[in-house]
Amino acid sequence: MIKIWSMKKNEDAAAKRRPKTSAAQIRVQKDLTELELSSTMKTHFPDPTDLLNFTLTITPDEGMYKGGAFVFSVNINTNYPHEPPKVKCTQTIYHPNVDLEGNVCLNILREDWKPVLNLNSVLVGLQYLFLEPNADDPLNKDAAEELRKNREQFIQNVKTSMRGGNMRGVQYDKVIVQ
Amino acid sequence: MATEEALSNGNETDWSDRYYHIDQILDKPGPRTDPSFLAGEEVKRFLRETCKILVIGAGGLGCEILANLALSGFKDIHVIDMDTIDISNLNRQFLFRPKDVGKSKAIVAAEFIMNRVPGVKVTPYFGRIQDKDEEYYMQFNLVICGLDSVEARRWINATLVHMVDPDEPESLKPLIDGGTEGFKGQARVILPTVTSCYECSLDMLNKQTAFPICTIANTPRLPEHCIEWASVLEWPRVFKDKKMDTDDPEHIGWLYKTASSRAKEFKIEGVTWSLTQGVVKNIIPAIASTNAIIAASCCNEAFKIATSSAAYLNNYFMLIGTDGVYSFTFEHQKRDDCPVCGGQAITVNVSKEWTLERLIEMLVEKQDVQIKKPSLATPKRQLYFQAPPQLEELTRPNLEKTLSELVDDGEYITVTASSLPFDLTLQVKYD
Question: E2 binding domain location, by residue (chain B) (predicted)?
Fold first, then answer.
């Protein structure tokens, strides 16, 4: 066998045994503890020993979704950051980029995810969806069309849905705070 | 040939000149052989009697690797694979026959090699690599991987890096990793903690093809869009929390049916059963000859490392066969901020009576680490997290506790902070 150990002698860094914490786990620790949560975002860990599953509540303080509290579930698997976290909206909401099942159309959650991105990028991305709903990448087609055609009506619909209203046979969840 | 005679004697599996060609390399040093090369009987004895090699994966690459190793003179080979043989494997996984469909790849492959190559012992394990502990991996001199999953590679890489014990040279196990994707492939030599590791290169991986979810939902143009619609959007809508099993023909059948009707609606052609399976299982067509090239390269490296008979690959060989033939070899650099092999590891001698807060203050003040706002956890529990607020609040009471309440003597703490490239490992020793 080659004598690898002789090369090893010159390497002082990382020469000590390390604990068997998975790379995903360390990365999640790093991502979470360096989150820059603004006053409009809040995380909740149902089981605080489980860092891989938590909810994020976004309460926009401006824009047409102001006054609502939108709850997303965030699920990170052990292949993070090779795979993006799975994010779903837990409520039925009226939004061009969120369908009635809670699927979210955000590029960095799917086709544009890269391991250099982190949880902060995801949170900022989600927050942005509420400030600037995007009619060009619709998941809820009706909402997107309304936004494009009649912005005033769209804003009215958002208000109705946030109060827990019923539109076109869809019962929306009440997300207004207070 | 003399072969038949010697074998029929029954008392000896080796026959004269069995390894004639390989012995040309092992009997005398060449101008470029390593000074530590022990030409002659000693190196042959090591290769053929002592060296124990582990092959992970007995699929497309694995079959080739097993055959190459056995024919190069490795005689104590172990093989792990959790899969069973599928009929679609038979075009390239040449150790398997139609009668073997449904059986364990590891077991069938081991039997085949032992029947075919006299004197080679192949020990199979039908199961997951994660079933085995460090003690198991410690028995090998070398590990070769022919895997198809990033997750399994990350696991074995982290395990081998973690096993390196500075006081125990034998604990450093060279890892040779082969991988193919259609006409492309790569072979690399990883010397855990010495060279760059698998995790160091994670950002070089190709992304899995993913389509924007809004395209899938609204403007499908490709059969793949329809299949993704069925699996990503329709499955959870219809079956809620029921998990999709991509190996269950009933599940694939449902996806195929659902995708087909979607395709019909949008006048898209090309949704087939096998495409459905291919998309949801992310199958990339395997090319037998790419596997052969990569497996050969891996086994050459294993042979050179085991015998020191020639310089080994440093450390990354890639093959691109999509546009003619192109290959490139380079030294992939180790990353300081690699979560597996990078980062600093330091031992701190402290008193049991210290509070966690005092330990953190020491870290912040320590000149050679210079950490701002560190967060700490052991593999078992969170010690103190700077954020998010809920976890900060929950872990805050720990600051007042003494270290002996939280950390065992010799235990490791993972420290992360924005000022660190990735993390810092702290081993706590009590005075």
Answer: 348-431
A138 in contact with chain B, both atoms CB, cutoff 8 A:
yes
DSSP characters for B24-80?
Answer: HHHSS--TTS-TT--TTHHHHHIIIII-EEEEE--SHHHHHHHHHHHHHT--EEEEE
CA dihedral B302, B307, B308, B310 (to 10 degrees): -70
Residues B197 and B217 in one domain: no
Interchain CB distance below 8 Å, B414 and A32: no
B295 belongs to a structural domain? yes
CATH of the domain at B151: 3.40.50.720
Q: In terms of domains, do B403 and B420 share one?
A: yes
Q: Which 363-392 residues of chain B touch chain A by CB within 8 A?
A: 375, 377-379, 381-382, 385-391
What's the rounded Cα separation, in Å, for the pair B413 and B338? Answer: 17
As beta bridge partners, residue A54 has: A74
In a shared domain, residues B295 and B164: yes
Predicted-assembly ipTM surpassing the 0.90 threshold: no
Q: Answer whether residue B259 is part of any domain.
A: yes
Domain of A142? 21-171
Q: Which of A105, A123, A147, A175 is catalytic?
A: A105
User: Is the dihedral angle over the CA atoms B149, B152, B158, B164 positive or is it negative?
Assistant: negative
Is the domain of B271 the same as that of B294?
no
**How many independent structural domains does chain A possess?**
1
When pLDDT is cut at 50, 70 and 90, the band that residue B8 belongs to is: very low
**Residue B226 domain-assigned?**
yes
A105 is annotated as an active-site residue: yes
The pLDDT of residue A20 is above 80: no
Number of domains in chain B: 3
| Closest chain B C-alpha to A163 CA, distance in angstroms | 24
Whether residues B171 and B33 fall in one domain: yes
A53: contact with B, CB 8 A cutoff: no
**Domain final residue pick, B270, B300, B330:** B330
Q: What is the pTM of this model?
A: 0.81
The answer to whether A37 faces chain B, any CB pair under 8 Å, is yes
Q: Is B43 on the interface with A (CB under 8 A)?
A: no
CA–CA gap between residue B291 and residue B64 (Å, rounded): 7
Residue at which a domain ends, from B330, B358, B389:
B330
Residues of chain B in contact with residue A57, where contact means CB-CB under 8 angstroms, are none
Query: Which of B172, B339, B390 lies at the smallest CB-CB distance from A4?
Result: B172
Interface of A with B in 13-32 (CB under 8 A): 13-23, 26-27, 29-30, 32
Give residue-wise pLDDT tens across range A63-105: 999 999 999 999 999 889 989 999 999 999 999 999 999 999 9
CB contact under 8 A, A2 and B305: yes
Quote the minimal CA–CA distance from A176 to chain B in Å: 23
